[in-house]
Automatic annotation (TrEMBL):
Role this protein plays: Mediates response to the active Hedgehog (Hh) protein signal in embryos, functioning upstream or at the level of patched (ptc).
Membrane-crossing segments per the record: 657-682
Record protein name field: Interference hedgehog
Database matches in InterPro entries: FN3_dom (IPR003961), FN3_sf (IPR036116), Ig-like_dom (IPR007110), Ig-like_dom_sf (IPR036179), Ig-like_fold (IPR013783), Ig_I-set (IPR013098), Ig_sub (IPR003599), Ig_sub2 (IPR003598)
Subcellular location: Membrane
Assembly, per entry: Homodimer. Heterotetramer; 2 iHog chains bind 2 hh chains when facilitated by heparin, heparin is required to promote high-affinity interactions between hh and iHog.
The species this protein was found in: Iphiclides podalirius
Taxonomic placement: Eukaryota, Metazoa, Ecdysozoa, Arthropoda, Hexapoda
Length: 757
């Protein structure tokens, strides 16, 4: 539980500041292409200092979870870190990430690609092409581009005897206008990786033959695999970066030379042999076609886009044992990005209660270990983008260990049936304060506050709910911007949920629970984290109440179903009930999202109750289920024992036999007291009048004894002592006849009074 409290502090203090800068990074490691023998430095920086900054890496072609730790160098204040990588011949293309740690939670940066500058000719074959074209046509020839990082620069050459004459081909495409027989010959290409300073002659050869032809049909002289790539649907595709250049050559020939027409999506663009568009934008995407006299070649032109998310991730409050759903919006990019999810830098995969897709991460059963930062990454060949959300896990019940410094958890054992009556063991019951409340939105102006309390300690008479408006920057547990306000209703000790209305939307609030105990003292629980009451919100589907059955004079068993098909996960359910004959407010009980049944206790016998159920999420509650009712059993009268007894604190009537027994005991006690008092008065009347009666030095003539311990009378147990509403009885001695202030010592007269928080 201590780790959970630390996590709450970190999430409340660190993340609001980090959220303003995209989860805390002011500098990401940048992707780089480097040749063998080079030295690469990756740098990363955060705005909020972390506990530590670390690095990890993995080969680019490995699985997503195959990350390996690597040592970097961080500055003293943990604001920045750097990693130096020596690029060697065996160094693979890799990804590098830095991780910022804040206690038990962590957030990772966008990964940087380290690409080794090299060329690969494994897919280039020694192909021989023979191309025959008519005279006076425009000839366009392409080389098959090898795999290279960065992309290779292509240059054409032509055999001229025993030498290879370099040709002017600025875009890597050979264009010969108005060809003649002198242009016939053998052509080839070279590829140069300018970063690695590596030039390789490609194995393909093209034999061009320019000849006289009679009237012939138009045709394309190159196959489609030379002028583009085919997608999964078989369409010829060309990808262009935003602000890059689109260059298309038609390559049609005929006798006479054909007249070329370029169109985009059926709209005519130009009549030239080539089509250039620069800079290329999203508006330039489409189907481009080159046609002439019945022959046509089309390209599907798409814009290359780095990944991005449309919509933002919303933080989620989940109850332990319930479900949680984190949504990151919709990923976009070209090529279509791959999406993966991280929780505190660890990959979340499908299986073992986790379902992940491109937009949502769903955890079927939330545990405390799931609290932290959820990141959704979308990556393609152009880079990565991520969004992030905070997943807060509310425990089922806060352990008493959280309060051990003030009120240690005490187990009060049952006395054995046979014990020493002269020296009985004494146990002091303590006031164990209520848990930190969980808050969920009910409407634009109301919330539901739920809590729990330990079974040990002094009995609780009733609860009070207090709330206060806080500022956006109030992260401290006790920090508020306004006065605490107390709801007027005294909440019975067996009720642990209460609705607060009359709030203002789009503001932050904190809530806390006070318990009033059997000794008329009270204790305040810890205040909730800041809760933002937002407008609107998606509601989960309403549950279906299937069964309402009385099980005793004081309890009713209810059951319901919930399909969850509405898209919004239910974090829990509220059960409302009241007597059918009552027009007052409903009593409320809160249960977790996995519950489908509940026993309502502390009911009155032989009374009809109406019940309804409502599902809720952190954003909004569902509609109510249909109302169903049931009547508790009649109370069993007589002295015989029954199988079901009225629970402690129940408003149910006691059996007549119990009333007779209690009345008889009280009568006997009263008679004995009267006899004792009469005997004492008689003995005192027989005393001689001249007998001197001693008067204690610390008292007065009328027998007044000052209180050694101050006793405070207050109309409101929630009221702090020292105000106008409290009066300490030990200060009232001056009202006694014949007493003197100087004659009455009381060491605590000006001592500290008991405080009510």
């Amino acid at each position: 539980m201590g780790a959970f409290l630390l996590l709450q502090i970190v999430l409340g203090v660190i993340l609001p500041a980090a959220a303003k800068i995209g989860m805390g990074f002011t500098k990401y490691p940048e992707s780089v292409t480097a040749p063998v023998g080079d030295e690469v430095t990756f740098e990363c920086a955060v705005e909020v200092p972390g506990e530590k900054l670390t690095w990890r890496w993995k080969p680019a072609d490995s699985q997503e979870e195959d990350w390996r730790q690597v040592e970097g160098v961080s500055d003293r204040d943990s604001l920045s870190t750097r990693l130096v990588v020596d690029v060697k011949e065996e160094t693979p293309n890799s990804l590098y990430q830095c991780i910022a740690w804040y206690g038990a939670i962590s957030v990772v940066s966008i990964p940087a690609w380290l690409t080794i500058a090299r060329m690969d000719l494994s897919k280039n074959t020694a192909e021989r092409r023979v191309i025959a074209v008519p005279l006076r046509n425009t000839v366009v020839l392409h080389c098959k581009e090898p795999m290279s990082e960065p992309p290779a620069v292509l240059n054409w050459w032509k055999e001229d005897g025993k030498i290879k004459k370099q040709l002017d081909t600025p875009h890597g495409v050979l264009v010969l206008h108005n060809v003649s027989t002198a242009d016939s010959g053998v052509y080839g290409c070279t590829a140069t990786n300018e970063l690695s300073v590596q030039t390789i002659e490609l194995p393909e050869r093209t034999y061009l033959k320019v000849q006289h032809e009679g009237n012939g049909a138009e045709r394309f002289i190159e196959s489609e695999d030379y002028v583009g790539k085919k997608d999964d649907d078989g369409a010829l595709t060309v990808s262009v970066k935003i602000d890059g250049a689109l260059r298309l050559w038609c390559g049609a020939v005929g006798t006479p030379p054909p007249r070329v027409v370029w169109t985009r999506d059926g709209v005519t663009l130009s009549n030239r042999d080539a089509l250039f568009i620069q800079p290329f934008t999203l508006r330039d995407e489409g189907i481009y076609s080159c046609s002439t006299n019945g022959v046509r070649r089309s390209w599907k032109v798409v814009a290359l886009l780095p990944p991005h998310w449309e919509g933002s991730a919303d933080s989620v409050n989940a109850s332990e044992g319930g479900s949680a759903k984190v949504t990151c919006g919709l990923p976009y990019g070209q090529p279509a990005p791959a999406v993966h999810w991280l929780l505190n830098a660890e990959l979340m995969r499908n299986g073992k209660g986790v379902k992940a897709n491109d937009t949502d991460l769903y955890i079927e059963r939330v545990e405390k270990k799931h609290a932290g930062i959820v990141q959704c990454f979308a990556c393609n060949t152009l880079g990565c983008a991520f969004d992030a959300a905070i997943l807060t896990v509310v425990p089922v019940q806060i352990s008493d260990q959280d309060y051990s410094a003030e009120t240690p958890k005490i187990h009060i054992p049952q006395l054995p049936k046979r014990h020493n009556k002269k020296n009985p063991r004494k146990h002091k019951a303590v006031m164990i304060r209520p848990s930190r409340p969980n808050v969920t939105r009910m409407s634009d102006e109301s919330v539901m506050v739920s809590w729990s309390n330990a079974k040990e300690g002094l009995p609780i008479q009733f609860f009070k709910v207090q709330y206060s408006e806080v500022s956006n920057s109030s992260n401290s547990t006790n920090s508020t911007s306004g006065q605490w306000q107390t709801a007027n209703y005294d909440i019975p000790s067996y009720i642990h949920a209460f609705e607060i209305d009359g709030l203002v939307p789009d503001r932050y609030y904190k809530f806390r629970i006070a318990a009033v105990y059997s000794n008329q003292d009270n204790k305040m629980g810890r205040s909730s984290p800041r809760f933002y009451l937002q407008r609107g919100g998606q509601s989960p589907q309403a549950p279906v109440l299937t069964k309402v059955t009385a099980t005793s004079p004081y309890s009713i068993q209810i059951e319901w179903t919930w399909s969850g098909s509405g898209g919004v996960e239910a974090e829990g359910f509220y059960v409302y009930y009241r007597a059918v004959s009552s027009a007052g407010a409903y009593e409320k009980v809160s249960v977790g999202g996995g519950a489908r049944a509940l026993t309502l206790d502390h009911l009155a016998p032989d009374t009809a109750y109406e019940v309804k159920v409502q599902a809720y999420s952190a954003q909004a509650p569902s509609d109510f289920s249909a109302i169903r009712d049931a009547k508790t059993h009649k109370s069993v009268a007589g002295g015989a024992s029954t199988s079901t007894e009225a629970p402690r604190g129940t408003p149910a009537e006691r059996a007549p036999a119990a009333l007779v027994t209690a009345g008889g005991a009280l009568g006997v006690t009263a008679i004995l007291l009267i006899l004792v008092v009469t005997l004492l008065l008689c003995r005192r009347a027989k005393r001689p009048n001249k007998e001197k009666v001693s008067v204690p030095e610390t008292g007065s003539g009328n027998g007044y004894m000052p209180a050694k311990v101050p006793i405070t009378i207050t109309a409101n147990p929630m009221h702090p002592e020292g105000g106008e509403a409290g009066v300490e009885m030990s200060f009232l001695h001056n009202n006694n006849t014949g007493s003197s202030d100087e004659a009455i010592p009381h060491s605590r007269k000006n001592g500290p009074a008991r405080q009510y928080v």
